[in-house]
């Protein structure tokens, strides 16, 4: 079935550079393993379990999210307070669909400006606060657990300051909380204050939550057509459900090829879009991939790159460094914007005449092809993924595709793609070091472990 979502060229990513091998081969066994993994992912029994809820988001009712978006749209600024899965999705959507300029934080003609308070760096939080007019700013605090220290610290500081300026009654009218529908500290806060809130279904993990209120509420406020975004995810779901072989199913192909290259020692994956608008897509993907797969000594390290910028930074390593990476180059066929380069009118610039009359996007595309071709010519495995346009529909498709790919790859690796035990340890150590009740032992262990780091020192 074609939905005009994307095309994936995989000829140069087949291991050993060959054509698709058949008949009892590793490829056939992999196809079978992927069929099983897909069955596991989509089984009725699993669908209701923690971690699997994101599979239902393409069908979810968006009425509440759209209503919240309309309410937020009246503000001049929206500060989304959250980190990891509670921040990167909104940034990714906004960067892709509203302000694809890779060196500007936020620009939107229709809606408010979006700011994300993720890191708990006092300099960043203070600077952000000074950029907004509190009386025209909404706080959207997002946390699945309702306890992440960075989010809670930023929330506490911003909330108390908002109350100081506006008084509690008015400040409450500028607050939206997105959290678990039943449990957690933020849910208790909502019950106490009776403020506006939206649920993040308990079965949806943070890094798989972009198609819920977590990623959609602020996006809707900024003017993103969230219905289209969801429709793209739904269309991708239909494609994947209707595709029963490796060659037809882009999720099986991506997961399967990552697995085959992983077996050949390529445990890094480079995602390199040639589009400023997809820069934050790589950030979002890096969390999804890294946290889902890095377990039990296994995993694949996500490397974020941006074409053509990283041609001037990383491509030397990619072409001549260790052969331990699988590359995915993403291209956008129609960039919407066309910039025809003028012929130089200054004598000293005459050598640039070869650029005159050329279209800038065509040059970027030529560079993408040149990089992919260079990698392929050196025998480095490279996938070419092309989307027709960077719009809400295609972005929704890409998001859902990569979520499925990640979950399937986790299954192939025999790890749980929906937990994050390694991150939880760091959270517990932080609570211990910050004196949170019940975490005294963790604080002690953390101090002990750090003492080993400090046991040998050089200062200058
Ligand atoms: O939404 P929260 O519960 O505040 O979690 C925010 C982030 O916290 C941790 O770092 C988890 O590993 C992430 O997966 C999660 O996205």
From TrEMBL:
Subcellular location(s) per record: Cytoplasm
GO molecular function per UniProt: carbohydrate derivative binding; glucose-6-phosphate isomerase activity; monosaccharide binding
Entry EC number(s): 5.3.1.9
Presence of keyword Endoplasmic reticulum: no
Gene3D superfamilies assigned to the protein according to its UniProt record, in alphabetical order: Glucose-6-phosphate isomerase like protein, domain 1
Keywords for this protein: Cytoplasm, Gluconeogenesis, Glycolysis, Isomerase
Record-level GO cellular component terms: cytosol
Family matches, as Pfam families: PGI
Source domain of life: Bacteria
Family: Belongs to the GPI family.
Function summary: Catalyzes the reversible isomerization of glucose-6-phosphate to fructose-6-phosphate.
Descriptive protein name: Glucose-6-phosphate isomerase
